[in-house]
Amino acid sequence: MAVKLRLTRMGRRHRPFFRINAVDSRTPRDGRIIEKLGHYDPLEKDVTKQIVLIRERVEFWLGQGAVPSDTVSEILLRNGIKHKYAEEKAARMAKACKLAHAKGKLFTKTERVLAEKKKAAEEAAAAAAAAEAKAAEAKPEAPAAS
Question: How far apart are the C-alpha atoms of 21 and 5, rounded to whole Å?
Answer without folding.
Answer: 6
